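Key result, reporting period 2: structure in, sequence out.
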């Protein structure tokens, strides 16, 4: 039987993918006490990077927002693997966003809202989180966005 968060995901039209395997020498997530720390997720869809390049130089801000949203979906897939049941999630503690962009780009926060807004849509008030958003010159696989997260379990 689907839990509250799984039902909410379905209402939003979101089907969680299989969690992506790490592509280097790290683990997808670590659990310590009540915290789950999830490694950065790129905008994978169907095993391929859906948004590549630099936001503000070939990738629109709107596509950057969509990429951040997809990154959060992939975070939730890892979170389900870590927690087993998404209803165990008490809070989205922190999100960290990395936006591949040219030096003159300044709308990083707008792009990262794709992930932040979805966190609140999925988890309600428990989805409100602290965050950091950083512009970077490049990301693995030429991904346009990468998002990492920290979550508290009940």
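The corresponding designed sequence is given below.
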């Amino acid at each position: 039987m689907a839990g509250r968060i799984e039902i909410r995901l379905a209402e939003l039209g979101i089907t969680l993918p299989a969690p992506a395997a790490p592509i280097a020498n790290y683990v997808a997530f670590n659990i310590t006490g009540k915290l789950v720390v999830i490694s950065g997720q790129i905008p994978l869809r169907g095993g391929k990077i859906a948004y590549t390049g630099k936001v503000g130089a070939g990738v629109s801000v709107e596509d950057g927002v969509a990429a951040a949203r997809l990154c959060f979906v992939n975070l939730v897939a890892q979170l389900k693997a870590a927690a087993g049941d998404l209803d165990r999630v008490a809070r989205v503690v922190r999100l960290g966003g990395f936006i591949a962009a040219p030096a003159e780009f300044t709308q990083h926060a707008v792009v990262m809202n794709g992930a932040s807004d979805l966190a609140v849509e999925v988890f309600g008030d428990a989805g409100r989180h602290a965050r950091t958003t950083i512009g970077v010159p490049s990301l693995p696989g030429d991904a346009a966005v990468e998002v990492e997260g920290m979550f508290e379990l009940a």
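DSSP finds three helices and nine strands in the chain. Strands lie at 29-32, 35-41, 44-45, 48-49, 54-55, 58-59, 89-100, 130-136, 145-153. This case is discussed further under Risks and Mitigation.
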